[in-house]
């Protein structure tokens, strides 16, 4: 596979990072991505506990050796216990995303850990630069889960033209074609999330895998109703991309209060619970182990890059 800054800096076989998906990327998935030659990342959501981080980090380390941890920076402002737990787990990288990394980046660096930040606009990127982050992730609106509104390719081009920091791409990348495209554009690698969601190593409700497999690229919706239903106080600028269901059909943009949403929400019911996924869901048509997916994406990207290089 083509070497990039990412592969050389972290000793990876492939320029692929497993997205830190809250509620889906636990220790097994994280470890298998790293074992396959990428860099797996644990997804620590606001409701995650310090004990969960410690336990899942140990699993990831046992399986894959190296790993990272992704945190929601806005939630650290009210309680930074998860950052302390992440530092104690000694990952290779901590992602401080969705908020200003400045109050926390120095503590991460002091522990000898690299700082990554997912950004959704060029202004976000400049804030991350000022905070001293090491790696920028240009996350486009095609991505699953919480994201911005600018598409991956426009955002990636803008960011690459605006920073000297190493840049990764995220959002809509689920095959070798997508990885080859962003590397050819100048990215040092890619985060993949939706491509892994049907893998048996994911955590979360069992129905989530079948929903991913059945979904097309037009079956997602960008919404905040699931945050409101679960009393998750995400800043209003970040919605979440999820697979559309009866809940979104009934409540997305309906203007009802949180109490009604919380009563209607049912995480055990696929039509009333949330499955966050990106527009790349249409490219996920069968269940495969995470390591197999990582190796296949890398091999297909390498074949395309070599073909065009020659």
- Class inferred from helices and paired strands: alpha/beta
Described by strand count, sense and barrel closure, the largest sheet is: 8 strands, parallel
Helix content: 40-55%
Q: Classify the beta-strand content into a percent band.
A: 15-25%
Indicate the radius of gyration in whole angstroms. 18 Å
Determine the CATH superfamily of one domain: Aldolase class I
CATH fold title of one domain: TIM Barrel
State mean pLDDT (0 to 100 scale): 96
First-to-last CA distance: 15 Å
Q: What is the highest CATH level, the class of one domain?
A: Alpha Beta
* Helix and strand sequence: HEHEHEHHEHEHEEHEHEHEHEHHH
Question: Which term fits the overall shape?
Answer: globular
Strand order of the largest sheet: 1-9-8-6-5-4-3-2
CATH architecture of one domain: Alpha-Beta Barrel
The overall strand count is 11
Q: Quickly count the helices.
A: 14
List the helices and strands and how they pair.
Layout: H1 5-10, E1 16-18, H2 27-35, E2 41-44, H3 50-64, E3 68-72, H4 73-76, H5 81-89, E4 93-97, H6 102-110, E5 114-119, H7 122-131, E6 135-139, E7 145-147, H8 152-160, E8 167-170, H9 176-185, E9 190-192, H10 207-214, E10 220-223, H11 225-229, E11 239-243, H12 246-251, H13 258-264, H14 290-309
Parallel strand pairs: 1-9, 2-3, 3-4, 4-5, 5-6, 6-8, 8-9
Antiparallel strand pairs: 7-11, 10-11
Helix pairs in contact: 2-3, 3-5, 6-7, 9-14
Summarize the structure.
Keywords: Flavoprotein, FMN, Monooxygenase, Oxidoreductase. The protein has 310 residues and is α/β, with parallel strands linked by helices.
């Amino acid at each position: 596979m083509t070497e990039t800054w990412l592969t050389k800096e972290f000793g990876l076989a492939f320029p692929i990072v497993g997205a830190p998906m809250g509620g889906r990327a636990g220790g097994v998935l994280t470890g298998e991505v790293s074992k396959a030659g990428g860099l797996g990342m644990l997804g620590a959501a606001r409701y995650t506990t310090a004990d969960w981080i410690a336990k899942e980090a140990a699993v990831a380390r046992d399986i894959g050796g190296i790993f990272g941890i992704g945190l929601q920076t806005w939630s650290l402002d009210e309680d930074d216990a998860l950052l302390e737990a992440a530092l104690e787990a000694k990952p290779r990288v901590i992602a401080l995303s969705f908020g200003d990394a400045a109050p926390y980046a120095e503590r991460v660096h002091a522990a000898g850990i690299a700082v990554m930040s997912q950004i959704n606009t060029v202004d976000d990127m400049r804030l991350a630069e000022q905070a001293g982050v090491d790696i920028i992730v240009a996350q486009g609106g095609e991505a699953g889960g919480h994201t911005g509104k600018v598409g991956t390719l426009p955002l990636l081009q803008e960011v690459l033209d605006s920073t000297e920091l190493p840049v990764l791409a995220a959002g809509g990348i689920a095959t070798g074609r997508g990885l080859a495209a962003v590397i050819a554009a100048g990215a040092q690698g890619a985060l993949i999330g939706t491509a892994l969601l049907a893998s048996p190593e994911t955590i979360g409700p069992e129905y989530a895998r079948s929903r991913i497999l059945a979904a097309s690229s037009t079956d997602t919706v960008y919404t905040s109703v699931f945050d409101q239903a679960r009393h998750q106080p995400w800043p209003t600028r970040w919605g979440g991309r999820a697979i559309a269901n009866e809940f979104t059909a009934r409540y997305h943009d309906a203007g009802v209060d949180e109490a009604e949403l919380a009563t209607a929400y049912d995480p055990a019911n696929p039509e009333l619970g949330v499955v966050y996924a990106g527009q790349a869901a249409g490219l996920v048509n069968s269940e495969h182990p995470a390591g197999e997916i990582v190796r296949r994406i890398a091999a297909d990207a390498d074949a395309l890059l070599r073909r065009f290089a020659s």
